[in-house]
Amino acid sequence: MDNVTFVRIFTLSGINETMNYRLTIFSLTLLYYCVILFFNISLVTIIIVDENLHEPMYILLCSFCINGLYGATGFYPKFLLDLLSSSQEISYEGCLVQAFVMYSFACCDLSILAVMAYDRYLAICRPLHYHSFMSKRKLSALVCFSWLTPFCIFSISIILTSNLKLCGSKIQKLFCVNWIIVKLACSDTDTVSNNIISYATIFIYVFHGFFIIWTYMHLIRTCVRSTDDRIKFMQTCVPHLISLVTFLVVIVFDLMYMRFGSTDLPQSLQNFISIEFLLIPPFMNPLIYGFKLTKIRHKILWLECVCII
């Protein structure tokens, strides 16, 4: 480790093994990023423009897609620049900002998924009270909760990290991660506050997970009794479940590997593991909801017909 106490520049060394194919990777990554932008912006635009879609489920979906754009934009532009650059460096401030974006994006996704699960629980299990529980005011509060909770938590975490004296400047990843920056601290005693915040964050989002499990236990129990509820479950809950399972698998896999994984794996495989949550959910979520939710699918088909004519 370099004997540095005032680090102003970090080196992202995860990209080194891919430099022989950087033009190919740049072209594919740029195309993929453009597709993510197109799918998510299209879905957000459809929901905003069509007043028939100004319902809680679709507003939450709009928030979900905006978060996908937020996370993707926090990674892909910098990665594309690194592929064209001879040195993959990022400023100290830029690294903290990117770490904040990556963590808040992932946790905001889980918060929105928890609110979406609550919305489906009310719609199917308590339909007579749905509009009173999901009024515009309460929906606004839930959307704010899903965004502000991770923003507040990781603002504190990043502020604590910014006060650390660092004895290293090399990050073995394609992007900045708060946990890795903390590991570069000169003294372990300085990182106690960071560890407390990390465990508090884990507790909060594990609670999110248990809440989602609780809602689906009630959803499944209700849907078993009624054919209409089963149809509604298949139409509106299956996309949510697919998004949830995909998100949890890629995030848990990445976190487990980051904490306990072997560094003997090829760097290219380590890179793929670390960016799965930026590759799959932002691309897959608008596709799943676009094709599965009837109102949005009909709107997309109508727009295609208009464009053809």
UniProtKB/TrEMBL annotation:
GO cellular component: plasma membrane
Coiled-coil parts of chain: none
Lineage, highest ranks first: Eukaryota, Metazoa, Chordata, Craniata, Vertebrata
Main localisation: membrane
UniProt keyword list: Cell membrane, Disulfide bond, G-protein coupled receptor, Glycoprotein, Membrane, Olfaction, Receptor, Sensory transduction, Transducer, Transmembrane, Transmembrane helix
Membrane topology annotation: Multi-pass membrane protein
Molecular function GO labels: G protein-coupled receptor activity; odorant binding; olfactory receptor activity
Annotated PROSITE patterns: G_PROTEIN_RECEP_F1_1 (PS00237), G_PROTEIN_RECEP_F1_2 (PS50262)
Protein name: Olfactory receptor 6C1-like
Residue ranges of every copy of the G-protein coupled receptors family 1 profile domain listed in the record: 39-289
SUPFAM superfamilies, per the entry: Family A G protein-coupled receptor-like (SSF81321)
